């Protein structure tokens, strides 16, 4: 169990090693003696990090090893604090705007000072001495031998999941549906492998056993169940022993890792069966059976609290069984049951059943690689039942230094990969799945959150409560509380991350946290702008998130935060930024709720995401032109507030289109443009070069792009398209239908010919999953084989045109084999009610024949008065 927590130290260490390497680079040019000392620090810490990674796989640590690990962790934090401060001081001094001679003179002085100043040399020598001492203790106590010898000591003698294998079938709950689904996947003709054929002699090595199994199975029809596989490599080895023949054999594999499941099913991905949480009815049946024998025996005064406990278990059978076993030992007093309910997610009491559940859940955690354990521990900063937004979580990981780029991915893409891995390993629950399969957020089950928090507190990873010891990460939930923790009782000089959820009168002063890298003020509706007056003193700050409707402005000091990479103001009422914002050269993400485009925005060359930026009559044309120089920009969100009647509208449009053209030929991936409600036109079709990397182009219905650009067919990376055009024609559908990676399409058009008939042919939209057509067309028809992956469809038709133009009143809905959600808006003008009923019935009958049997939702427009 302790091994989970070692990852917190490795997370800090990896970030530090990267910085030590940078400090030896050209930018800082230290003298040779100092470089040697820094190289010693880096090499010694690398060696210690290797041991920490070994410790991450050990469940129970020797006390001496645990103490050494804790000291190394604290030392790593102290070294990083010093390195960050020193690197900032160098970067800040060298980065001050001066003439060439003054810049050269200051550079020489700083290089000399780095090697000569007693303070710096003394600091490095002190850090070096601490490392030497830690290394000597490692050798003196032979910690490496302790770790090597701990393998056998940490073996679990009895698998905690073993009792589940011997539960009587009659006592199982909620398996009827899943059992039938699995039977459909494997059932065929009669199977035969005789019982007496099972005996295979024990082999001395893996290869011999594989050969023996292949020989035994080669001429047989078999069904084999392989339970609880954890890695793809293990499956590849097992698969070698299972010969492929023509006897229609079946293999069933269980795993809690979706990547392993996909590997086992390859190339038949649709054969993966994903277990779902128990329904509310099945959850109640399991719970009441465990506690009382049946629901009818539950006392009335415990019904309400029982339901609340069941809901907190979230349909997880393990949690329901554990809570049922715990409550079966309690008295029938409502107060005691309420106490148990309140303890879920806050640290359950010591109980054999609870400990058994923790041991089972820990199996998943122990299987995580070190970097994912670190990221998972970070979730403990969030309150219970908090809906965590994926992109915000990833940005926090990046600010903490937990994300390390692999291959050609950037930091955000790599962080999303971490997030998806945690989902695939069933440690977090996905929320709001997007058109591309990416979850926009997640929840942490109360039981898992309780386990994470208990381990994180042991590691001093985030600290939730009051502490008299050094705190590195501090999180507090002020919602509904009278006051916040007394900061004076803590050692806050080393706090690196501060997360405050809610607001109280006695908010901690920002000056108490000089080493802060991450500051998140969530759900702080009563927070005033004055609270931020000393924000410029937090010169190491990398991440700043503010959520408070009373926050209307940022202090001019914001420009002093030269390390700031992430600024999230989406939850504020800020509409204009101070001029000093342009000084933030390291800023990568600026997220707002609609602020005016900053002056001198062209100086912010580090920007990768700029969202909800307002362009209105007060926007300088120069700033709009400078926008095109941000060549690193990957995501841009603009709110266009220039009316078509504005005297300088042509100049504004020209500068916007020019800037978008430059960004599109650079790194632009996501472009979102909306208006203030007025209908405007922007000729995006006039871009000189196509935005070849574009993945999302989203415009609101009020913004018309005049016509579909000719270059749109070259966008081989485009996943999502939402546009409004003058008139929707059949040729438009043909053009868009050829986009090879398009997953979601929304089209707005209010000037289509009233009797236009549109046909989606069988060779169009081969990858499309969502189609939303807000167009006044007569009939929309779907040919056989059209859109084979379409899952969601919403469109509008005219009932009178469908009656006169369409021989098949179901419009071809029966051809959409993957459809799950269907919504049809019917213009009922000039037709009788019974004709509308007939059209709806035809569509409904056709939908029932589809594999997913979608239930259509109908909306009637302009109903005829009879």
Automatic annotation (TrEMBL):
Q: A GO molecular-function term, please?
A: ADP binding
Query: A Pfam family name for this chain?
Result: Rx_N
GO annotation (BP), single: innate immune response-activating signaling pathway
The record's annotation in CDD domains points to: RX-CC_like
Protein's UniProt keywords contain Repeat: yes
Q: In this protein, which residues make up the domain named Disease resistance R13L4/SHOC-2-like LRR?
A: 494-854
Q: Where is the NB-ARC domain?
A: 189-294
Q: In which domain of life is the source organism classified?
A: Eukaryota
Keyword Hydrolase recorded: no
Sequence ranges assigned to domain Disease resistance N-terminal in this UniProt record: 12-91
Q: Which residues form the Disease resistance protein winged helix domain?
A: 381-452
**Where would one find coiled-coil regions in this protein?**
none
The record's InterPro entries line, in alphabetical order, gives:
Apaf_helical, Disease_R_plants, LRR_dom_sf, LRR_R13L4/SHOC2-like, NB-ARC, P-loop_NTPase, RX-like_CC, Rx_N
Sorted UniProt keywords = Coiled coil, Leucine-rich repeat, Nucleotide-binding, Plant defense, Repeat
Give the similarity note.
Belongs to the disease resistance NB-LRR family.
Annotated protein name in UniProt: Disease resistance RPP13-like protein 3
Q: Which organism is it from?
A: Panicum miliaceum
Cite the source lineage.
Eukaryota, Viridiplantae, Streptophyta, Embryophyta, Tracheophyta
């Amino acid at each position: 169990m302790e091994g989970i927590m070692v990852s917190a130290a490795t997370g800090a260490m990896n970030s530090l090693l990267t910085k030590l390497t940078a400090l030896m680079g050209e930018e800082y040019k230290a003298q040779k003696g100092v470089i040697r000392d820094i190289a010693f620090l880096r090499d010694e810490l690398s060696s210690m990090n290797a041991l920490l990674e070994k410790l991450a796989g050990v469940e129970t640590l020797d006390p001496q090893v645990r103490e050494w690990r804790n000291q190394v962790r604290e030392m790593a934090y102290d070294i990083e604090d010093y390195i960050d401060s020193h690197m900032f001081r160098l970067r800040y001094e060298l980065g001050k705007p001066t003439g060439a001679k003054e810049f050269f003179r200051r550079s020489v002085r700083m290089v000399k000072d780095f090697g000569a100043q007693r303070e710096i040399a003394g600091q490095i020598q002190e850090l070096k001495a601490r490392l030497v001492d830690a290394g000597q203790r490692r050798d003196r106590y032979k910690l490496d031998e302790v770790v090597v010898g701990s393998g056998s000591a940490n073996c679990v003698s009895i698998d905690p999941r073993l009792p589940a294998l011997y539960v009587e079938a009659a006592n199982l709950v909620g398996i009827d549906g899943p059992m039938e689904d699995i039977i459909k996947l494997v059932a065929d003709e009669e199977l035969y492998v005789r019982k007496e054929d099972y005996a295979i002699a024990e082999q001395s090595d893996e290869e011999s056993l594989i050969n023996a199994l292949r020989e035994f199975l080669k001429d047989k029809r078999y069904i084999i169940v392989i339970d609880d596989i954890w890695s793809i490599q293990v499956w590849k080895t097992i698969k070698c022993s299972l010969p492929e023949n023509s006897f229609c054999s079946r293999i069933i594999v269980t795993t809690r890792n979706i990547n392993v499941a996909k590997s086992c099913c390859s190339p038949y991905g649709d054969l993966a069966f994903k277990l779902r949480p128990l329904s509310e009815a099945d959850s109640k049946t399991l719970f009441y059976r465990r506690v009382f024998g049946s629901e009818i025996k539950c006392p009335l005064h415990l019904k309400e609290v029982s339901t609340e406990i069941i809901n907190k278990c979230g349909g997880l059978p393990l949690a329901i069984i554990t809570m049922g076993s715990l409550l079966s030992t309690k008295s029938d007093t409502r107060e005691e049951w309420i106490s148990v309910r309140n303890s879920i997610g806050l640290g359950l009491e010591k109980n054999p059943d609870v400990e058994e559940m923790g041991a089972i859940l820990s199996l998943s955690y122990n299987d995580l690689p070190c970097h994912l354990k670190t990221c998972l521990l970070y979730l403990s900063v969030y309150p219970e039942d908090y809906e965590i937004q994926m992109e915000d979580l990833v940005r926090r990981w990046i600010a903490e230094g937990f994300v390390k780029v692999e291959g050609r991915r950037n930091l955000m893409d790599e962080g999303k990969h971490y997030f998806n891995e945690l989902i695939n390993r069933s440690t977090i629950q996905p929320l709001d799945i997007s058109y591309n399969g990416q979850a926009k957020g997640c929840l942490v089950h109360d039981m898992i959150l309780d386990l994470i928090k208990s381990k994180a507190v042991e590691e001093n990873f985030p600290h939730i409560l009051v502490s008299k010891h050094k705190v590195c990460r501090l999180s507090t939930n002020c919602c509904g509380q009278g006051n916040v923790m007394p900061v004076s009782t803590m050692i806050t000089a080393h706090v690196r991350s501060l997360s405050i959820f809610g607001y109280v009168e006695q908010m901690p002063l920002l000056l108490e946290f000089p080493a802060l890298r991450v500051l998140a003020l969530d759900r702080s509706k009563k927070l005033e702008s004055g609270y931020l007056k000393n924000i410029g003193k937090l010169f190491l700050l990398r991440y700043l998130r503010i959520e408070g409707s009373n926050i209307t402005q940022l202090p001019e000091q914001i420009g002093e935060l030269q390390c700031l990479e992430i600024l999230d103001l989406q939850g504020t009422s800020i509409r204009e930024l101070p001029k000093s914002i342009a000084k933030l050269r390291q800023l990568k993400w600026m997220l707002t709720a609609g602020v005016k485009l900053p002056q001198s925005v062209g100086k912010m060359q580090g920007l990768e995401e700029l969202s909800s930026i307002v362009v209105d009559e007060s926007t300088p044309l120069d700033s709009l032109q400078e926008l095109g120089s941000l060549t690193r920009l990957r995501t841009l969100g603009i709110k266009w507030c220039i009316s078509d009647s504005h005297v300088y509208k042509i100049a504004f449009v020209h500068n916007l289109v020019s800037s978008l053209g430059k960004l599109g030929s650079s790194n632009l991936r996501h472009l979102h443009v909306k208006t203030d409600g007025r209908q405007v036109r922007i000729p995006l079709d006039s871009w000189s070069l196509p935005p070849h990397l574009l993945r999302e182009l989203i415009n609101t219905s009020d913004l018309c792009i005049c016509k579909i650009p000719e270059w749109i067919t070259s966008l081989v990376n485009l996943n999502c398209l939402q546009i409004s055009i003058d008139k929707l024609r059949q040729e438009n559908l043909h053009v868009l239908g050829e986009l090879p990676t398009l997953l979601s399409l929304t089209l707005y058009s209010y000037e289509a010919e009233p009797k236009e008939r549109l046909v989606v042919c069988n060779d169009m939209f081969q990858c499309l999953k969502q189609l939303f057509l807000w167009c006044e067309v007569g009939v929309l028809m779907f040919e056989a084989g059209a859109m084979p992956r379409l899952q969601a469809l919403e469109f509008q038709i005219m009932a009178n045109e469908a009656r006169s133009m369409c021989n098949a009143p179901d419009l071809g809905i029966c051809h959409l084999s993957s459809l799950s959600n269907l919504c049809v808006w019917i213009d009922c003008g000039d037709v009788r009610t019974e004709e509308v009923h007939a059209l709806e019935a035809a569509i409904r009958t056709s939908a029932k024949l589809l594999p997913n049997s979608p239930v259509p939702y109908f909306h009637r427009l302009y109903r005829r008065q009879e």
